[in-house]
Design goal:
This protein has 343 residues and is α+β, with helices and mostly antiparallel strands. The protein contains nine helices and 16 strands. It has three domains: 54 residues; 224 residues, Ribonuclease Z/Hydroxyacylglutathione hydrolase-like (Metallo-beta-lactamase, Chain A, 4-Layer Sandwich); 52 residues. α6 runs antiparallel to α7, α7 packs across α9 and α8 packs across α9. It is globular.
């Protein structure tokens, strides 16, 4: 099996360069180069491309733990994106079936996606058949192109392409600023299958159940249920240790959490923290925080507090229960205030 190795340098920042790998399943070098041609040409629009050659992937694999039979999870750092973590601050999972693999979320950069491919290859020689994106935030979607190059089709909430397109400019600028070289070559994934409501997919002999949700944590939340292990892969609908972040609808998120409790699961992989929590107990901290945020914001609105005052005071009782509270709580309160003040 041949991969394609090359070097990319940003045209508008020539000093920012990185080695990249285009994973393929090609049996010969010419076949690998042909399979990689579209990706290479796409990169040329914004990068100087050099040292193109065939070889084997030398990317260090991202560490994963097999938490249940056939279910492997990378527990990401509870942190902000930076060069040290490469933007891989959201959990990633893969499920190994009899004849294939499904990956759930993909990391925050092209480099992260390549490291996920390397991790799967370290566990099994079965092909990556599909990647499921649980929502459109950078730490979950930006490694997906590497998985697509490896042969995966991409599944996501039907709203994800539009949500991502609207924010791609700021997301790219933020990624380069926060992550640096690991972000070089990062592109928006192209969704092959948009889930309108629900879908059953086959990861090579292992069935998975996908469900798209109304606006909640974000505008494009999707969950994955693995019946073989009775595990819900919840994306950022469920948080652990990392403060929940609100980018959709507070009340919508609360309603979705109520609906999630009816799923036939025994375990949950949260979008952050974990990596494996009992179900439905695992959602209780997230639900508690959202309830406190709602109660405090309603009280502040009723008392005539301004938006900035609410941002500084809401959900303060939750401070000691979460990491990254100061980084995210003011924005959560702002989103909640904007939603609730017109009810």
């Amino acid at each position: 099996m041949f991969d394609v190795l090359l070097t990319l340098c940003l045209l508008d920042q020539p000093g920012l360069c990185a080695d990249r790998t285009i994973p393929t399943a090609a049996a010969t070098c010419p076949e690998a180069l042909a399979a990689a041609a579209e990706r290479i040409e796409g990169w040329r629009a914004r990068h100087a491309v050099s040292a193109i050659r065939c070889g084997s992937m030398v990317v260090p694999p991202l560490p994963f733990e097999e938490v249940l039979p056939g279910l492997h999870v990378h527990r990401a750092a509870v942190a902000l994106a930076d060069p040290a973590n490469g933007g891989t601050i959201g959990n990633i999972a893969f499920v190994v079936g009899e004849s294939g693999v499904a990956v759930i979320d993909s990391g925050g950069s092209r480099a992260a996606g390549e490291a996920v491919v390397a991790a799967v290859r370290a566990v099994t020689d079965r092909p990556i058949r599909l990647v499921v994106l649980t929502h459109a935030h950078p730490d979950h979607v930006f490694g997906a192109t590497a998985l697509a190059d490896a042969g995966a089709t991409i599944w996501a909430h039907h709203a994800l392409p539009e949500v991502l397109a609207l924010r791609m400019g700021p997301f790219e600028a933020q990624g380069l600023r926060q992550i640096g070289a690991d972000f070089v070559g990062t592109e928006a994934p192209r969704v092959d299958h948009a889930v309108q409501d629900s879908a059953a997919v086959d990861a090579g002999g292992r069935a998975l159940e996908l469900r798209a949700w109304p606006v909640a944590h974000s505008g494009a939340d999707l969950t994955v249920l693995d019946p073989a292990t009775a595990t819900l892969l919840a994306g950022d609908l469920v948080f652990d240790r990392h403060l929940p972040t609100l980018d959709g609808s507070l009340r919508g998120w609360q309603r979705v959490l109520e609906d999630l409790q009816g799923l036939a699961a025994e375990w949950v992989v949260p979008g952050h923290g974990g990596p494996l929590l009992p179900w439905p107990e695992g959602l209780e901290p997230t639900a508690r925080y959202l309830a406190r945020l709602e109660a405090d914001v309603r009280e502040l609105i009723a008392g005539g507090a301004t938006l900035s005052e609410a941002a500084a005071r809401a959900a303060e009782a939750e401070r000691g229960a979460w990491l990254l509270f100061d980084e995210h709580n003011p924005r959560n309160a702002t989103v909640a205030y904007t939603e609730l003040e017109w009810e």
